[in-house]
Design brief:
458 residues; single chain; five-stranded parallel sheet; 15 helices; Rossmann fold; globular; two-stranded antiparallel ribbon; alpha/beta
């Protein structure tokens, strides 16, 4: 491609500076901005999504806006660094310290801190003494605190998980948490779907962190298709070439397929095509030029596979977490009930208190002992009267058999069990009483409440 003229270069730079406005990017911008303004005790925010969706674009836009809107020049609201892969294969925290100090070194406060400290890299990791590492960390903490930094944004944060034994990825979050405890700064970790694995490494990570998914557009959905086409239209209208916008918009499905629904990939594709056309002194943006500079099928396959795998991981992770939470809440209630029963004196649950006339129609209530986790109460007088003993004393579907206590009637009100099949269609059925101690019978006639013990109506 021939070199661009000065005028063509200026046109290309102007197009590259175009900030694509679309609802999904604005939504992520809003959430991250709110987190930076008030992070309410959590130490890190995870921002993840497919490659080319626009993550780096949104964090650069936020950092520029915060710095531009800051009236006090002595403050630096946001510091932007990148977690670069180490030559040794594991992430070196020294690189984080050096990038932060280099970004802030123009301020007098940081210059004073760096008088006796060098941030220049040395050949190997082992060439630095441990005190030098501590000096750099203290300098970073002092600089961030004095300049009142609100957030440190770490792009390509998936490289933070590259640690060597005996260290673990959870140690990286503990390190960032300790930095936040000293400086009150929020760390925003931006990266691919690998960053999602940081979410629940341990209880502290779950409590002190939040996560935000930046998804791509799926044009099979009407609303998302409209948003993607709107972003495409916005870009085509700013192309510094003659462009038939309507004709190109008619091929929105082709643009979506070639960009995988990622606006970042779409813009890079258009920038490359515009640069090539300007270099050839072409007057218009053509379909042939766009086809020539689109991603190759093998590239799209790799990106599509990675995107679908990440989306599946997030969906399964969220669904599994919800199911586990419900199971734990149910198990926790049962465990508390069992612990409460075990705490009572031995034999107390087996004792009953008889009242005059118990077991008769006009009698009082019979205390039958502690309520199991789940049991049956029969609300029909006739239930189980003529059934065999096994049928009367066992209720199918219950977790265990609850025998009829001494003195309780074989049938009628107060019976703890009944035959599995009623003798006639009008026969009332038994109802399950769960751990909450109350339920409504299936015929909608009766509601009972049972706290710690069960009272059978004689």
């Amino acid at each position: 491609m021939p070199r661009l003229t000065h005028e063509a270069h200026t046109q290309l730079e102007a197009f590259k500076a175009v900030k694509v406005k679309h609802p999904r990017l604005d939504e992520v911008d809003q959430h991250v901005t709110q987190a930076l303004d008030e992070h309410a005790g959590y130490t890190h925010l995870l921002l993840y999504g497919p490659s080319g969706v626009g993550k780096s674009t949104v964090i650069h836009r936020i950092a520029e806006r915060f710095c531009a809107e800051e009236p006090n020049q002595a403050r630096v609201p946001v510091v932007l660094v990148e977690a670069r892969p180490s030559d040794t294969g594991t992430y070196v925290r020294l690189d984080y310290y050096r990038q932060v100090l280099t970004t802030l070194k123009a301020h007098v406060v940081v210059k004073e801190l760096l008088v006796n400290i060098t941030t220049a890299p040395k050949p190997t990791r082992g060439s630095r003494h441990v005190t030098e590492w501590l000096d750099l960390r203290e300098a970073v903490e002092q600089a961030v605190a004095r300049l009142q930094v609100q957030a440190v944004v770490i792009d390509e944060a998936q490289h933070l998980m590259q640690v060597a034994a005996p260290h673990k990825p959870a140690d990286q979050l503990d390190w960032l948490k300790s930095m936040t405890n000293w400086t009150h700064v929020l760390h925003v970790l931006v990266g691919t779907y690998d960053v999602f694995d940081f979410r629940n490494l341990h209880g502290q990570a779950a409590r002190r962190g939040r996560d935000l998914h930046f998804p791509r557009y799926h044009v099979d959905t009407t609303s998302e298709r409209q948003e993607f086409v709107g972003a495409l239209r916005y870009l085509l209208e700013h192309v510094p070439l003659t462009c038939d916008v309507s004709a190109l918009l008619a091929r929105w499905r082709w643009f979506a397929d070639c960009s995988l629904g990622c606006v970042g990939i779409l813009k890079d594709w258009l920038v490359q095509t515009v640069a090539a056309t300007l270099g050839d002194a072409g007057p218009a943006l053509t379909l042939e030029a766009l086809t020539r500079h689109a991603l190759q099928p093998a590239q799209r396959v790799r990106l599509e596979v990675d995107a679908r795998a990440g989306e599946h991981k997030v969906a399964v992770g969220n669904a599994t977490s919800h199911e586990q939470l419900q199971a734990l809440l149910g198990a926790g209630h049962a465990d508390r009930s069992a612990a409460g029963r075990a705490a009572r004196r031995p034999g107390e649950a087996a004792r009953t208190r008889r009242r005059p006339g118990a077991g008769t129609r006009s009698g009082g209530r019979r205390r039958l002992g502690d309520a199991p986790t789940e049991m049956c109460l029969c609300w029909s007088r006739r239930c189980g009267t003529d059934a065999p003993a096994a049928g009367r004393d066992a209720c199918p579907g219950m977790p265990r058999v609850w025998s009829r206590p001494d003195g309780a009637p074989a049938g009628g009100r107060g019976a703890l069990s009944h035959p599995s099949t009623p003798a006639d269609p009008d026969h009332e059925r038994c109802d399950t009483v769960g751990p909450t101690g109350h339920d409504v019978d299936r015929l909608g006639k009766t509601r009972i409440g049972l706290s710690a013990r069960v009272y059978a109506l004689a």
